[in-house]
Amino acid sequence: MKKFKVGRLSLGWQILIGLLLGIICGVIFYENKTAITAMQNIGTMFISLIQMIVLPIVISCLTVGIANMGDIKKLGRVGLKTLIYFEIMTTIAIILGLIVGNLFHPGDYIDIHQLHSESIGQYVQTAHKVQHSGIWSTIMGIIPTNVFGSLSDGSMLPIIFFCVFFGLGTATIGERGKIIIDFLQAVAEVMFKVTDWVMHVAPIGVFALIGSTVAQMGLKALAPLGYFIVLAYATMAIFIIIIMGLAARTFGLNNWHILRTIKEEMILAFSTASSEAVLPKIIAKMQHFGVSEGIVSFVVPTGYTFNLDGSAIYQSLAALFLAQAYGIHLSLSQQVTLVIVLMITSKGIAGVPGASFVVLLATISTIGVPVQGLTFIAGIDRLVDMGRTVVNVAGNSLAAVIISKSEKEFDFQKNRKYLQQLGK
Questions:
Q1: Going by C-beta distance under 8 Å and a sequence separation of 6 or more, which residues neighbour residue 59?
Q2: Count of CB atoms within 10 A of residue 65's CB?
Q3: What does the DSSP 8-state code read for residue 174?
């Protein structure tokens, strides 16, 4: 008689079980401060474990990839293609959110005065700084004055900027740079091994994170805003299935292959509402999928700041939702202004905590919506954040494959073998 081993369950199934158990425990321990604190701390420790390994992987993979690329003209071409692609996709996402909001009018079904408000004080100061910093401050912030300070702060863009130049410099010194490449390649392999170990505790981290969220909010708190939540998720599904599917088909790719390849990472991203939680695995899987190391190591981390499609959908839909809830009619010119403002502000503060919420704080005043309106959707921000994180992860994975294909660096033979191994 064979014994059933829990270890045979795939990581995706283990995470799903952790997600369901977390919801159940969240309901059981609703407003139980002791249980909430315990689950929050366990969840925070898991996220900290992920953050511990993200930067070493980005630094080692990106530097080695750029060094192997070795051509500053090629790098410039890849960078330009990447930024143009990101801008097109995020603009489409913003417009999609507005179209859905105009068609279905989610704010018309809400009595804003009967909703329970939540504190947004933690975001206000950040939004105030953003409104006065401007785009030039963001651009200047890309260049690190102290790379070790950027490492300490976890600032991704300055680190990417340094690694690009360090990789190019390594390539120019020829054979003497091989020792640096070999060392960093070894570092990357070690960190991917550490990532595999950390992923073993992912179901526990997911259980704690979702459990603490449900225990604080309660399921009843979702009912008044249920239509908005469903509409937001439906819009994100449309973007993944239709918009991303068309983008993939344009380049002769199958988006379903990509989605099925990263399904475990999408489940983890949904459960933790953290893109960083899956960054190491996405880089590794996209390399196995056939994307060159240099391109995936550049595109994916950069996309975490410039290609937040899920966040873009939420920001435009939420802004229109609040305007409708307050009875504010937005003209076509006002909505075009909203698109332009979101295109700028979303790039400027993508790296700050609660970025999507901060973007809304920094922009809704341009369309006449009271800032206090955000207090009514603050309670569900975490729940919607889970969905938009999935879109962000899927969007950046597709971007890496598309840029690699456009540069004729997509390994179709490696791709076929990998898909066969996964049973596609």
A1: 159, 163, 184, 187
A2: 24
A3: G
Predicted pLDDT of residue 221: 62
33 class by beta-carbon count within 10 Å (0-12 exposed, 13-18 middle, 19+ buried): exposed
Cα–Cα distance measured from residue 58 to residue 49, given in angstroms and rounded to the nearest whole number: 15
State whether the Cα torsion 54-9-261-267 is positive or negative.
negative
Q: State how far the Cα of 62 lies from the Cα of 166, in Å rounded to an integer.
A: 10
Residue 290 Rama label (left phi>0; alpha psi -120 to 50; beta): left
Rounded to the nearest 10 degrees, the angle between the axes of helix 332-348 and helix 72-104 is: 140
Residue 156 structure tokens? 């991704």
Q: Give the mean model confidence (pLDDT) for residues 11-28.
A: 88
pLDDT bin (cut points 50, 70, 90) of residue 302 is confident
Contact 195, 281 (CB under 8 A): yes
Q: Which helix (H) or strand (E) holds 85?
A: helix 72-104
Structure tokens, 418: 């990998």
- Going by the DSSP 8-state scheme, the letter that residue 241 receives in this structure is I
Question: 169, 181, 199, 245: which is closest to 401 by C-alpha?
Answer: 245
Burial of 73 (0-12, 13-18, 19+ CB in 10 A): exposed
User: Do 315 and 307 contact (CB within 8 A), yes or no?
Assistant: no
Residue 135 pLDDT grade (very low, low, confident, very high; cuts 50, 70, 90): low
Quote the CA–CA distance of 354 and 273 in Å, as a whole number.
11
Q: Rounded to an integer, what distance in angstroms lies between the CA atom of residue 316 and that of residue 341? A: 10
Contact 182, 175 (CB under 8 A): no
How remote is the C-alpha of 409 from its chain's centroid?
A: 25
Mean local confidence (pLDDT), 403-412: 92
Residue 125, CA distances (Å) to 122, 172, 275, 353 in order: 7, 45, 24, 12
Interacting residues of 36 by C-beta distance below 8 A, sequence separation 6+: 29, 212, 215, 216
Residue type, position 280, single letter: P
Q: Do 152 and 145 touch, CB atoms closer than 8 A?
A: no
Confidence band, pLDDT 50/70/90 cuts, at residue 187? very high
User: What is d(CA 315, CA 373) in angstroms, rounded to the nearest whole number?
Assistant: 14
> How far is 51 from 195, CA to CA, in rounded Å?
11
